[in-house]
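Hi V.,

You were right to ask for the full record rather than a summary. Here it is.
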Amino acid sequence: MAKDSQELLNLFGHLFQQRFFVGAAIRSSQTEDSQESNQRGQLRVLRLLAQQEPLTNSQIVEKLDIRPSSASVLVSKLEEDGLVKKTNSPEDKRVTFISLTTEGRDAIEKSKKLKNDLSDSFFESLTNDEQEQLDGLLRKLLIDLENNAPKWDDKRKWSEFFNSSRGFSPLNHRKFPQGFNFHDEN
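Predicted structure:
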């Protein structure tokens, strides 16, 4: 079984060496809370408004857990691009509501279509039954890994693991001040 499981791991390794696949998988699996770029930040605001609108700036801040200044910049950019509009509250002129424009709704739909087309292109060589089987197997594997991943509290075990793998030696990570230091300094 060890040889078979090693071959499976090698196949996963080859799959993740495909840059296009890795990039798409990482982007697809990122949570909506990921804030790696301003563009994705704008998309987060658009998606939030698509789910629930109108919202105030402070509601956007709270729901996306971002700074008020960041929300203001994002909303201003989206307004400048014609994707959202601001309207004053009829009850309280100090309150401004933010909602999607038709162009904003179109941008959300375009984003969804792009993501769907991308995932369809990755798995088009598999039948529906094979896709369902793969889904079940991957979910089972993820649950098992989450429940039974190595819990190596001893830093030496991690050191042995990484140092035995080509490319993971602390000396190969010179951009870090002292490589990865897995050894206690005591």
